Amino acid sequence: MIIHTPVIVLKSFPYGDTSLIARCFSEDKGKISLIVKGARSKKPPKSAQFQPLSYIDVIYYNKSNRDLQVLSKVNFRESWPRILDDLRSITLSMAILELTEKTLSDEDPHPRLFATLVNVFRAFNEKKADPNILFWFYECALLTHLGFQPILDQLEFPGLTLTDPNAGPNSGLILASLLAEDIENLPTDIVTPIDRKIIGDYLWTLLRYHFDGLAKIKSMDVARKILAD
């Protein structure tokens, strides 16, 4: 079957002498792995199109009995160059990509989450909101669309007691606004240092509770330091 879908590249790495493998979040098929033959050859190279954060259209041959799908064609769809010019934005964007790669299951479509991811990166690029707010917005969306929507007054889970997300001056209001999933009306409340700590710890604790292996995400160590500043 031939699949034509937009994707965001989550990660890529060399394969063989001239090819590469790209892990992508696609709108139509969820997380997929593509083998891009000759991507690192001189005529014509495709490696630039498969850098993390690339938003591209791909056509590939899908076979349900194999893990790697063979790319046929690729075109750039949209670029977000201003993300790369801002240390906070690029650091948080890379953490978002890694979170997405680690939490999604293969070929499990989440088109609304895909649309949210695109909108978050557009907002980073256009500097529409504080990068911290955008990062937390995506964490809330990720939990919600994967079946673990935060309920702010639920603090008890088997083996876990959460810190009260309403304990900061504005943390509860900010989280409630983020959970509304309206990127055009992000919270404008003052975010105090206490709010930053409470919101960051609350969402990260929930993510680690619901998804195994997230504690090993290296990019989150840096991201969490930035979120706390």
Task: Characterize the structure shown.
There is one protein chain. The protein contains 6 helices and 7 strands; from the N terminus they run βββββαααββααα. The chain has helices at 87-103, 111-126, 131-145, 171-179, 193-210, 218-228, and strands at 2-15, 19-26, 30-36, 55-61, 69-78, 156-157, 160-161. Helices cover 38% and strands 22% of the residues. The mean pLDDT is 93. By secondary structure, the chain is of the alpha+beta class. The radius of gyration is 18 Å and the shape is globular. Strands 1-2-3-5-4 form a 5-stranded mixed beta barrel. The protein has 2 domains: 2-78, OB fold (Dihydrolipoamide Acetyltransferase, E2P) (Beta Barrel); 81-228, Recombination protein O, C-terminal domain (de novo design (two linked rop proteins)). Helix 1 packs parallel to helix 3 (131-145) and helix 3 (131-145) runs parallel beside helix 5.
